What we know:
5 helices, globular
Amino acid sequence: MAKTILDEVYGELKAMGLTPSERVFCMEWLGRSECYMRTLRFEKIKPSIATIAICASKLQHYGERMVQTDKHKAAGKRFLQLSEQCHREINKDAEATWLEAV
């Protein structure tokens, strides 16, 4: 299965030292069970739009606050970029859904 936006976000947060494991990422950043990402891989399915939206919202929330500080400005900008990527993924999936109906 192809990498998802959530895989990218997890990799970035882990590299920044902001989440110690995929299990913690699933619970703290996605609001899902500790095995959410593992289940996606096992079932070969895409993450839900709702889960991507939760992640995007949290990244945006913290990104907007972080860019206001000198110490965390760069990380905040990256959070906002990742949030935007999540939003683009949501829009792409939504557009595919309504285009199917047309």
